[in-house]
Amino acid sequence: MKYGLILLTVLAFEQLTSGLENGLARKPPMGWMSWERYRCITDCRKYPDECISERLFKRMADLLVSEGYLAAGYNYVNIDDCWSTMERDSEGRLVADPERFPNGMKHLADYIHSKGLQFGLYQDIGTKTCAGYPGMKDYFEIDAQTLADWDVDFIKIDGCYADETKMVEDYVLFGELMNRTGRPMLYSCSWPVYQEYKGIIPDYEILKQTCNMWRNWGDIEDSHSSVESITKYFSDNQKRIQPHSGPGHWNDPDTLILGNYGLSYDQSKSQLAVWTVLAAPLLLSNDLASVKPEIRELLLNREIIAVNQDPLGIQGQLLKTVNRIEIWKRPILPKVKHEMTHAIAFVSRRADGAPYAIRVKLFEDLELSNASDVKGYLVYDLFNTALKPIFLRADASFETRINPTGANFYRFVPQFDNIIRGFNDLRS
Ligand SMILES: *[C@@H]1O[C@H](CO)[C@@H](O)[C@H](O)[C@H]1NC(C)=O
Q: Is the CB of 22 under 6 A from ligand 1?
């Protein structure tokens, strides 16, 4: 009897801590999403290349393939708000706008799938979407089935026009109804941001059970200050939110805005480095046809993507700030004997003139291990992958010089051998 009770408690605990088990999002999802760049442009006569339409998503699907993004891992093509008609059909079903999506959603899904990509769509838990299109309230069952019928792979459910104190039950219910369709669909939730704005602390245990990812904070806009304010939310709240991110269930600071109007080259490095340390989903929201080559190169940097996609899926944190240089640190594989490898980003909050040099001690400042058998670290420059790594002793210091509002990003791999083969530029 007593044993049974303990077993039951253990099982319940196990269930509560293991997270949603639909097999999806074992690594942070990657792809493309329309909202930040294309908003709710619906006038296709005036803006034929920008309106939310079949043409736009087919074009982006083609570009994901031809520009090498799919090969690098960006495999979702996600429609955000403003895709439906203003009314449901006579049977209560959602309808894609017939002028902008003349062949319907299933056709678009088939096209996207034919390219080796996955198809994402948007809806809202309340009575309307944020832009005023029909929401899902009172139509959960029929909408879950419609999404499954259209072969949707990823669904973002927003939280406009809903009661923040009751929306959790609805999100949970909709998740169950999606599960019952039998089609695995990545479930992206927005309730934390709506609750946070109302001063309600989200229940992360239910979140992990219900959603594959969730928006913690406000919508990103096309500026470095927007990236900075979201970054600040993540560092200010890291103690509370960091432990809940992991394989299958991720904190989401919103889309990458690299390739748009607002970020300089150095600021683009800054967003990419911070999002990578945060194990954030990497969803692009830009015009893939007009991304400058040097920005595309950042987005396709395989070593940075590998850090973002590290199988352990541990969200990194702000370690400390030195002279307005933030030091962000994330443990990643490989684990060498008893020590983790670390990705470390130096993110400048400085805007004063010249590149700013800081010198940090590996053990005291970066809090890397100086265990007696650790001989040192190989340091790889993630933004300059052609450079050979340098070797540093565990008691050494490391100097780096960061451009104003930019970031430098490194991988520190622990070394246990005395002889470092192939690296003759040893420094200490
Ligand atoms: C539904 O939930 C069960 C239990 O968590 C899970 O094993 C299954 O993979 C889910 N199915 C879908 C289609 O999400």
A: yes
Provide the β-strand partners of residue 378.
391, 413
Tell which one of 179, 185, 186, 208 to mutate to probe ligand 1, the residue whose CB is within 8 A of the most ligand atoms: 179
Reported as half-sphere exposure (CB side, CA atoms, 13 A), residue 161 has a value of 17
Element (H, E) at 207: helix 204-210
pTM, two decimals, is: 0.94
To 10 degrees, what angle do helices 265-277 and 224-236 make? 20
158 assigned to active site: yes
Task: Please classify residue 269 by burial: count the beta carbons closer than 10 Å to its beta carbon, then call 0-12 exposed, 13-18 middle and 19+ buried.
Answer: buried
Residues of the chain with CATH 2.60.40.1180: 317-427
Which residue is catalytic, options 219, 222, 365, 381? 219
- Each residue's pLDDT, cut to its tens digit, for the chain (428 residues) gives 344 444 444 344 444 456 888 999 999 999 999 999 999 999 999 999 999 999 999 999 999 999 999 999 999 999 999 999 999 999 999 999 999 999 999 999 999 999 999 999 999 999 999 999 999 999 999 999 999 999 999 999 999 999 999 999 999 999 999 999 999 999 999 999 999 999 999 999 999 999 999 999 999 999 999 999 999 999 999 999 999 999 999 999 999 999 999 999 999 999 999 999 999 999 999 999 999 999 999 999 999 999 999 999 999 999 999 999 999 999 999 999 999 999 999 999 999 999 999 999 999 999 999 999 999 999 999 999 999 999 999 999 999 999 999 999 999 999 998 655 544 444 43
Nearest 5°: CA angle at 128, between 113 and 74? 25
CB 287 within 8 A of CB 274: no
- Residue 139, number of CB atoms within 10 A of its CB: 17
Class of domain 2-308: alpha beta
Is the dihedral angle over the CA atoms 370, 373, 378, 382 positive or is it negative?
negative
From the alpha carbon of 181, which atom of ligand 1 is closest?
13
Class of domain 317-427: mainly beta
Listing DSSP states for 67-78 in one string gives TTHHHHT--EEE
Q: Is the CB of 176 under 6 A from ligand 1?
A: no
The verdict on the CB of residue 148 being under 6 Å from ligand 1 is no
